[in-house]
Amino acid sequence: MDIIVLSFYDWLMKFKDVDLSIGDLAKDAESDKNFPRKSKDLDDIIQHLNTMGASSAAIETAEEAFDYYKASHLPPDYSSEQ
Question: Using the 8-state DSSP alphabet, how is residue 3 labeled?
């Protein structure tokens, strides 16, 4: 059985109606046509946010959200090189 691994963006979209900072991040990512939508790698996400001039709070939210994404969604042996 193959495991389907959602990209961070696809996973994040589950939170776009949540009235918390993760919901704000999801809404911003949805409206950002250049957001790395297929990425499963934190470095890609952070690099993009830095390029876009995101606040330190937005970057911290992305890092925390990615930790949750990784813990709740990615298999324990998953590598971003896959």
Answer: P
CB 73 within 8 A of CB 33: no
Two structure tokens written together for 20: 């918390």
Threshold 0.90, pTM exceeds: no
End-to-end CA distance of the chain: 17
Q: What is the CA radius of gyration of the chain?
A: 12
Fold designation for 8-72: DNA polymerase; domain 1 (1.10.150)
Contact residues for 63 (Cβ-Cβ < 8 A; gap 6+)? 42, 46
Q: What is the pLDDT along the chain (82 residues), one digit of tens a residue?
A: 566 678 999 999 999 999 999 999 999 999 999 999 999 999 999 999 999 999 999 999 999 999 999 888 766 666 554 4
